[in-house]
Amino acid sequence: MSLALGAIADDYTGASDLANTLAKEGLRTVQTIGIPAAGLDLPEVDAVVVSLKIRSVAAAQAVERARAADQWLRARGAAHVMYKICSTFDSTDAGNIGPVLDALRHDVDEKSVLVTPAFPETGRTVYQGNLFVGAVPLNESPLKDHPLNPMRDANLVRVLARQSMAAVGSVDLATVARGADAIRARNAALSQDGAGAAIADAVFESDLEAIGAAALAQRLSVGASGLGLGLARGLVAAGTARRHQRTVLRDRPVEGPAACLAGSCSRATLTQIARAEETMPVLRLDPERLMSRVAETHRALAWAAARLADGPVLIASSGSPEVVSALQARHGRDAAGQAIEQSLATIAEGLVELGVRRLVVAGGETSGAVVDQLAIPAFELGPEIAAGVPALRALGSPHGELLLALKSGNFGGDRFFADALAVLA
Ligand code: ADP
After folding, report:
1. Residue of 267, 297, 314, 317 best suited for mutating to test ligand 1, as the one with most atoms within 8 Å of CB
2. Is 80 exceeded by the pLDDT of residue 293?
3. Quick one: which H or E segment has residue 375?
4. pTM of the entire structure?
5. Using CA atoms, how far apart are residues 385 and 183, in angstroms rounded to an integer?
6. Domain stops at, among 173, 207, 238
7. Pocket of ligand 1, candidates 11, 347, 365: which has the most ligand atoms within 8 Å of its Cβ, to mutate?
């Protein structure tokens, strides 16, 4: 396998978003959960996104993990590796964007690295080195009060310089608008002056295409999913990768019963559960009983076992805001959330042991708990079910062939569960 593109994502949701962006651009894409074990057998793909959880850990640990992921990707032929950060530049003066950038740059002996968190599709733009979230600078957005990484400065040249050993320059929008050659020339000049990184302005997708094309001449870049889009288009334009249809599910269909699990209590998910009741049996779990785990999970699995042969089922812990607040008041927010996530993950494993091969999960944290419980090391990206929600094929799963859809609470239309099952069919 020789990868056209490697990526290291600093958190799981960011990795999923990047993997989906690359797949939408036609790259055959795999997302791994952590650095894969040596024996993991991967199909022939264009891009691998290694999901780490290093956004808010100690800088030294983030550096160590990112370096190991970089080595893994480069050993598989990745000529270019993108370090995927949050489009809000989620970090503090201690890191971890700067320290990871410094280390990866040092390892591949790269000069000034292009950096841009711009992702115009989601309202993240960079102008004169300043990051905007919608219409306001980063430090006036809700991110200024982020519980772990409060962002109080919109000027990314300053923000990155405070956490990096190297000097930081900028490639302004006028230069970016002149195209890849102009960006490369400006970045080379910054390098000459001793810069180790350059914040590239980007307001439109065409800016990201130019930055992506320029970055591909180097071995490393840093950015959000928008940069992934630019790199993917650059690889296709250069003929290094071909645009593929997302046929991974059709090529190798998976037989077996289907089930849905919902732990999200978002308004969208509550509506989707109500709609699902028109087309499949739905079991609404008792959240209080779920807290003590065993009996309620057994009840859920017995209920499913009696129905799976006749078609898909949906099992939901989701409750209205009043139900959620009442449970949180009795047990504490974190304890309630974690206990229910773990119970749903146990139910997911039980369902798979009952033969379920197609599983739809609603809820970001709930999905994370399910993937951990099922010990799935990697996914191959399939077609998109709804904006931002791809169908996934598990790779190297100890439970055998498995197709999944994992969605964050607010994603998908009213008929999401039926839509997902139709794509996974
Ligand atoms: P979303 O993507 O909508 O944020 P998550 O799965 O990330 O969904 O988060 C939902 C959280 O709510 C999880 O921690 C889950 O365990 C918890 N939860 C699920 N059902 C209930 C309930 N009935 N009462 C309280 N908390 C619940």
Report:
1. 317
2. no
3. none
4. 0.93
5. 36
6. 238
7. 365
